[in-house]
Amino acid sequence: MSFIYTARALFVFLAAIFAGSMTFFFPGLRGDALVWAGFGLAVSGIIVLIESLIREVYPKTLLVGVLGLWIGLITATLISKGVPETSYIPEAQRITYAVALHLFLGYLGAVIALRFVERIDLSSSHLITADDPRLKGCKILDTSVLIDGRLLDMVRTGFIDGLYILPKFVLDELQNIADSPDPSRRQRGRRGLDIVRSLKDTNMNMEISEKDYPHIQAVDAKLVQCAKDFEGQIVTNDFNLNKVAEINNIPVLNINDLSNALKPIILPGENLNLTLLKSGKEPGQGIGYLDDGTMVVVEDGVSRLREEVDVVVTSMLQTQAGRMIFGRLAGSNSGAMDDNRAHDSSRKDNARKVVDLDLKKKK
Fold it and tell me: In sequence order, what are the beta bridge partners of 106?
């Protein structure tokens, strides 16, 4: 960035020097050298200001604006040439009218083009908007994964590589969520924008893509089409988008799936230490959570709510929403009772076998 500022300052300085020295090289020019230097300084400053503003404009917007400007200028030129030259109109006035016509129609053409820039679809014109070959196979970020925020932690660990694309329509959706009158949605949208800003400060290779599909309204449908064009993968936490992408044979990287895969394996018989926070759906059940958010359902744990207890794992259930662990309080009699019942049942079975053998012998 310092090189850009240095180049700008050098350009303004050289422009002022060149404008001031014109009076020495062109004796026909009237005026003081300092006045001309000030004029060169002002013009170069305006050029630098326009250049700095253009840097914040997306390429599509800039292209459409320039095309509208050229259409306006060409129209003004045709009108000026179509007016016959007569002796009744002085030359100075005719030039003034032509300049004013070019300024008016040029401005009008650029403004109209920029006003309808979102309705102009250049994606079908591969000559103008041919995709960069390096974008092939990139990873496309969804709104949900930005609001979630775990992607930032993954980037900081250094496990993230490759090129990530943030489409402009996803960024616009985040802004709309952040402007929502609903406090909950507004907070989620602002969190997503903060995550985007934090990702730009990391070493993550992320670019904002101007590619848009004005004829498609839904953001999920735009993501699917963008993944098809780039032959890339969608990074999301959205269950519905995950299914739609799979139907369209588009690879999906789901952060929830990765999180579930990285959770430690817990086998029946292992001991856990946790705090029971609420009662479960079934009578007597207590609910607690591990550090990674896994729900633990404890039998007869409702009497120990708000207490830190030791739990023995009895079974585990894996669902699409995550993992659930079932257990019982350590030292409870339920496990011993089960063992005694099994032992009594085995003893009764052996007794029946003995009786049957005795009956056979008597026969």
Answer: none
The secondary structure of residue 271, as a DSSP letter, is E
Residues whose CB falls within 8 Å of the CB of residue 150, separated by 6 or more in sequence, listed in order = 255, 259
Higher pLDDT, 334 or 252: 252
For 218-274, the pLDDT digits (tens) are 899 999 988 988 889 999 998 899 999 999 999 999 988 888 777 778 888 889 999
Q: Are 102 and 200 within one domain?
A: no
Same domain? 241 vs 145: yes
Grouping H, G, I as helix, E, B as strand and the rest as coil, residue 313 is strand
Number of compact structural domains in the chain: 3
Query: Two tokens at 127?
Result: 């000559």
Strand partners, 299: 328
CB of 270 closer than 8 Å to CB of 290 = no
In this structure, the number of other CB atoms found within 10 A of the CB of residue 303 comes to: 11
- CB count within 10 Å of CB 328 equals 19
132 — pLDDT class (breaks 50, 70, 90) = low
The closest alpha carbon to 301, from 268, 331, 267, 321, belongs to 331
Instruction: Write the CB contacts of 168 (distance below 8 Å, at least 6 apart in sequence).
Output: 58, 208, 209, 210, 211, 212
Q: Pairing relation of β-strands 271-279 and 286-289?
A: antiparallel
| Mean pLDDT, all residues of the chain | 79
Separation of alpha carbons 83 and 89, rounded Å: 11
Say whether 253 sits in a helix, a strand or coil: strand
Average pLDDT over residues 35-46: 82
Domain extent, residue 88, equals 2-119
Helices first, then strands: H and E counts in the chain: 13, 10
The whole-angstrom separation of Cα 217 and Cα 239 is 20
Whether 204 and 292 share a structural domain: no
Q: Specify the range with the lowest mean pLDDT, choosing from 105-119, 214-228, 277-291.
A: 105-119
